[in-house]
Amino acid sequence: MNAITHQKILAAGRYRDVSLEGVDRETARRLYRFMLRLRRCEEALAAEYHPADEMRCPVHFCIGQETVPAALSVLLKAEDHLYCHHRSHGYYLAKGAPMRAMFAELYGKETGANGGRAGSQDISFPAVNFHSGAILAGATAVAMGTALALKTQQRPGVVVAGFGESATDEGIFWETVSYAALRKLPIVFVCENNNYSVFSPLLKRQPTDNISEKVSAFGMKSAALFGNDAPLVYRILREAIEAARAGSGPAFVEAYTCRWSGHYGPASDDLVGYRSEEEVRAWKENDPIALLEEAMAAAGQADAAGRTALLKEIDAEVADCFHFAKSSAFPKGGDWRAMNYAAASPEADRLLVEIDEAAFDHEQVAVQAKGY
Ligand SMILES: Cc1ncc(C[n+]2csc(CCOP(=O)(O)OP(=O)(O)O)c2C)c(N)n1
Ligand SMILES: [Mg+2]
User: Fold this and answer.
1) Residue 1's pLDDT band (boundaries 50, 70, 90)?
2) Which of 50, 163, 299, 308 sits CB 3.0–4.6 Å from 85 for a disulfide?
């Protein structure tokens, strides 16, 4: 069994070990600001999702899981590449992609990051080397391919692949880990282990819950840690990313955490009965933002006035993003072939030509069913 498990975290109650050791004042401020900005923007999106029903895609919120994106926002450079799964908003913002284009993408507008055609779970922003993908573990293999390209072409930079623990239910994840270890690729795999794949707990999907131990059996450095401790997540990821950058090869980091919302959409799905009220309450008592705030306050680095000023600034940005998204136009349709990311691919062109142009709802009259 793992040294750390969800059961052990819940049994331990309130976590009291946040330490700012190795995290300078400016880094702590950046981690805190990032988490607050992400939390606030997601809470605003969640509040607006229903009953307005104007967003054109399913949305997976990461409220409660802010530490990994926050650490990456400090650690990654422009030349680095970040790939992630369907719970994409934190990662998108971590790579410095604009919040306005994210909101517009969710609203299906032409000013969106992908012209309104990808939505939340397939959003990308190639200009900052950010890509997400809804196919579980799919992005891990693509990320590994990017790391292979960096290495063989001797280009600078590291690749980070972020995903939930359910990616490790997929065979391609293990092939990816094996090959990355074999070739000592400059890649860091970050698993946000929130214990659930939709409604299924990990121990109903795999015979053991020792993901990081299994990964180390493939010859890769791996670590498991309490994922709501932002400075700890930062320190461990810094070590892994610096090592990959220095040519020492890949690493796997497993951050135990909890998503506060339902699997998708703003509503709680706890009524289904797959996890208990006590479990979610216990995790909320270990709110990653509150934990960091307390440690910073104890060190004289945070206070109520600072928080109020920060929230005012963030709320103004979020309001601007809503205005931008809602007042933008829907995409016009247009030539599908021009939208082909790799226009040189004859197979992709053939598939695109076969799409029935008339079947496209140019006016976007139909609104997503409420189930999303
Ligand atoms: C290959 C594949 N199988 C099934 C799905 C359907 N699916 C979407 S999200 C999800 C659960 C994902 O759980 P996890 O990876 O742990 O991430 P979390 O949602 O917990 O953040 C599933 C099964 C999918 N997207 N891709
Ligand atoms: Mg999960």
Assistant:
1) very low
2) 163
